[in-house]
Design brief:
Helix content is 45%, strand content 18%. By secondary structure, it is of the alpha+beta class. The C terminus is likely disordered.
């Protein structure tokens, strides 16, 4: 099993220079290989297979940096090509920009070339760098990704491999989560996350800092100082949001065996409803990813209900489907059949929980996360087909 740990590092002046060289060389080699591939395909109609070693004789300064960092740039380009041909939505590989692209590179551990000793981490071509290891690691180091943030902070993401068996847990405690634009989510028990909306709270300050930044002369030291202040403010918002989501996902993973959630396309929601800022501030998709791996490590399940499942329209008491509730402005409604009064979010969360129970009961006997997921997807497709046929 693989797991990643992220720590902050504090390089000295010489090490920062080496990091800057490596970032630049990785970006340069990536763009050069992409350019050669495009030219070769235009001339011959075939895909060119090229490695960074091809350019070291012409550009000797490429030998100064870690060769494995350049090799990983080649692998990233191959992955980008593979994604493009397998899924057109991924888009064709793009050139990396010096100003806009993220400054990072990945290197591999070979015969102990990467190790942590006495509060320092040894990196190829860089040496020992001070590291703040805030929690212990288990397993063997496979690779390390070094990253420089826009606020000029340095971090390392360490990928380790270790032997671990996922515990077997009886699935008894279920909970449904319905996406809420204001509260982040509503549970089937009626609890609301009460999301603090961090971006909205800092929006005025960010606007003021951006105005100050735009008025500074380009290339001046004052403009660079203001850029750092803007980056630090964005970083503060991101850290607050991430900390909040980690705490919420941890509590859900500890207290429940199965979390039932809807597979919403948040990008489409933000475009159609013109609420991109609010949707991005909530980061519901990030919460879903946190729940997925935290539940998996505990032997628990995250059941993702199909986005076309009418959870908001179905009465959780009698099962009547009220198509009038498609109007998102209706937050409370009364069932025409049984007379039950519903809160839109709580009713949808209860329906998601019950649908998750049905899917979990129907997939009993499957082993492994892949088989479980395939069984859930199969049942969801069958349920969707039944719904469409009945509507016709």
């Amino acid at each position: 099993m693989n797991r990643a740990y992220k720590f902050r590092i504090y390089p000295n002046k010489e090490q920062r220079i080496m990091f800057a060289k490596t970032f630049g060389c990785v970006r340069f080699v990536y763009n050069l290989m992409l350019s050669d591939k495009i030219k070769h395909y235009q001339q011959t109609g075939k895909i060119l297979s090229v490695t960074p070693a091809r350019y070291k004789s012409q550009y000797e300064w490429l030998k100064e940096v870690d060769s494995l960092a350049l090799a990983n740039a080649q692998l990233n380009l191959q992955t980008a090509y593979k994604n493009f041909f397998s899924n057109k939505k991924a888009g064709f590989p793009k050139y990396k920009s010096k100003k806009k692209s993220r400054k990072r590179y990945t290197t591999n551990n070979q015969h102990g070339s990467i190790r942590i000793e006495g509060g320092r981490i040894k990196l190829p071509k860089v040496g020992y760098v001070k590291i703040v290891q805030h929690r212990p690691m288990m397993g063997v180091i496979k690779s390390v990704t070094v990253e420089q943030t826009p606020a000029n902070k340095y971090f390392v993401s360490i990928l380790v491999e270790y032997e671990s068996q996922v515990p077997e847990v009886s699935l008894q405690k279920f909970i449904g989560l319905d996406f809420s634009m204001h509260d982040l989510y509503v549970t089937s028990g009626g609890e609301r996350a009460d999301y603090p909306r961090f971006f909205r709270r800092h929006e005025k300050k960010l606007a003021r800092l951006c105005r100050w930044y735009s008025r500074r002369k380009q290339g001046s030291k004052n403009r660079e100082r203001m850029r750092l202040r803007v980056c630090l403010e964005y970083e503060r918002i991101t850290n607050q949001r991430t900390d909040y989501l980690h705490k919420k996902s941890y509590n859900l993973a500890e207290n429940y065996d199965v979390v039932c959630i809807e597979t919403l396309n948040l990008r489409t929601v933000s475009r159609q409803l013109r609420l991109g800022k609010s949707v991005s501030d909530n980061s519901f998709g990030k919460l879903r990813e946190m729940l997925r791996y935290k539940l998996y490590f505990r032997g628990k399940k995250l059941i993702e209900i199909d986005k076309w499942y009418p959870s908001s329209q179905i009465c959780n008491v009698c099962g009547y489907k009220n198509s009038a509730v498609k109007d998102l402005s209706i937050r409370e409604w009364e069932c025409p059949k049984c007379g039950a009064e519903h809160d839109r979010g709580i009713n949808a969360a209860i329906n998601l929980r019950e649908e998750g129970k049905r899917l979990a009961a129907s997939t009993v006997g499957t082993t492994g996360s892949n088989a479980y997921g395939e069984g859930v997807r199969r049942l969801q497709s069958e349920k969707l087909a039944e719904t469409q046929s009945s509507s016709k």
